[in-house]
Amino acid sequence: MSIIDKALEANRQYAKTYKPAPGGRPYPKIAVVTCMDPRLSDLSAILGLPEGDIDVIRTGGPAVTQDVLAELIVSNRVLGTTEILLLNHTGCGFTTFTDADLNAKLSASTGDASPAPMRFFSFKDPDQNTREQIDTVRSHPWISKDVPVRGVVFDMETGLLREVKPVAKHTAA
Ligand SMILES: [Zn+2]
Asked: Is the CB of residue 55 less than 8 Å from the CB of residue 75?
């Protein structure tokens, strides 16, 4: 049986005790951009916040793509979140290859180079990645200046979050 078939079967049990959220809509307070890494799935515990308070936007890395920016704007402007946290981590799978190498490898192994160069958003340094993300989000004209944009790195060994300071030009306020 496939994992999805097992999940669909388990869902029938889940639905028996399921209670829909009151009001029929979410009321998130904070948008968190984090990696697709499954070790980061329990954000409620990692951050000590109720699940319902967190709009979770997940990409590999995480990469703050144009899509992620659009999701952050909807999270702030439509759904009502008032803070943005960019949550990176140590030991990310996206630091284990480069875009150029993966493009070359997949072009060769599949025999089809037509998708190349595909952007995989690989990176080397989570601190640098975090600083660039803060800059990208903070610079967007549709992200309100009233919304704090902060970045942290989750240490996979200790479970601790360490805040990364933004580049100097954004620290003066
Ligand atoms: Zn990762």
From this structure: yes
Distance 52 CA to ligand 1 centre (A): 23
CA of residue 149 to ligand 1 center, whole Å? 20
Strand partners, 115: none
Residue 35 DSSP SS3 = strand
92 Cα: distance to centroid of ligand 1 (angstroms):
4
- Asked whether residue 170 carries a pLDDT value surpassing 60, the answer given is no
* C-alpha to C-alpha distance for 11 and 118, rounded to whole angstroms: 35
User: Among 17-21, 98-102, 144-148, 156-160, whose mean pLDDT is lowest?
Assistant: 17-21
Question: From ligand 1's centre to the CA of 8, what distance in Å?
Answer: 27
Alpha-carbon gap, residue 82 to 63, rounded angstroms: 21
Span from the CA of 21 to the centroid of ligand 1 (angstroms): 30
Q: pLDDT per residue over 140-164, tens digit each?
A: 999 999 999 999 999 999 999 999 9
